[in-house]
Write a structure and sequence with these properties.
With 256 residues, the protein is of the alpha/beta class. 25% of the residues lie in helices and 18% in strands. Strand 1 (2-6), helix 1 and strand 2 form a beta-alpha-beta unit.
Length: 256
């Protein structure tokens, strides 16, 4: 079994859709794809993308990203309603958002958001970050409450069927810790750190015994081992990022 990973396909862009369409329909039919969110904020494009990938892989495992929960162009009540719609579309298109087990390998999708545990947002971020306008939450839900809502829906070891698993792979859209970002990130880009993720997620993946965690969101691709877990980001990114993004599937695991 081979496991590939990619995130942040952003299928709102025609070159990104063309890349999905050119993927082989034969080479991956026995393989797993981990899809780490940010497919499209448009339900129609998200569904088409999920279906295209499901036709190419044995199993596609998915978690939504922040773009997938935007509601400003969909006319939905709030982003929780959009989340429910995304879940339905995934199921209808043959894509799973639940734990997967193959022999001794378990793969566990992890929901999350950001709670400012990586830093407090400044006025620039509050004005520039699209989620503040494109997402909508019920009254009383700030970013911390949203994060806790998603985190509470992640599976326990028992629910994830981890008994006897020799290897646990977890994946999320958001970052589980801020030190996944390289030290050389310019100061002006560090203003985005508050909206990158939550430490609550890292606590959960360690409780599950994960040895490999796949994430997305930052569009900064890297592989790094910290305190016994290998973290990998393989974001496809925007067409304008083609000069530094790999823009390819990444093989993250292989077993008999």
């Amino acid at each position: 079994m081979r496991v590939f990973a990619v995130s942040d396909l952003h299928l709102d862009y025609a070159p990104n859709r063309a890349w999905v369409e050119q993927l082989s329909r034969q080479d991956y039919r026995s393989d797993i794809l981990i899809l780490g969110g940010d497919i499209s904020d448009r339900i129609a494009l998200l569904g088409e993308g999920l279906e295209a990938l499901a036709r190419r892989f044995s199993h596609v495992l998915f978690v939504p990203g922040n773009h997938d929960l935007w509601v400003h162009r969909e006319g939905m009540r709030d982003s929780f309603e959009k989340f429910d719609a995304v879940c339905r579309i995934a199921t209808e298109r043959g894509v799973s958002m639940t734990p997967y087990r193959h022999g001794g390998t378990a793969i566990v999708p992890m929901l999350s958001w950001y709670d400012y545990s990586f830093g407090a947002p400044d006025d620039y971020l509050k004005g520039a970050w699209a989620d503040y306008r494109a997402c909508r939450w019920p009254d009383g839900y700030d970013e911390d409450a949203v994060t806790r809502w998603f985190i509470a829906r992640n599976p326990s070891s028992a629910a994830a069927n981890l008994e006897g698993a020799s290897e646990v792979i977890t994946f999320s859209h958001f970052l589980p810790r801020i030190d996944l970002m390289p030290e050389g990130i310019p100061e002006k880009h560090r203003r985005l750190y508050p909206i990158l993720g939550t430490y609550k997620l890292d606590a959960q993946i360690r409780q599950l015994g994960s040895g490999l965690h796949i994430y997305g969101h930052s569009h900064v691709n890297r592989r790094i081992a910290i305190d016994g877990i290998t973290y990998i980001n393989n974001a496809f990114g925007y067409p304008s990022e083609a000069h530094f993004a790999a823009r390819e599937l990444l093989l993250v695991h292989s077993s008999d």
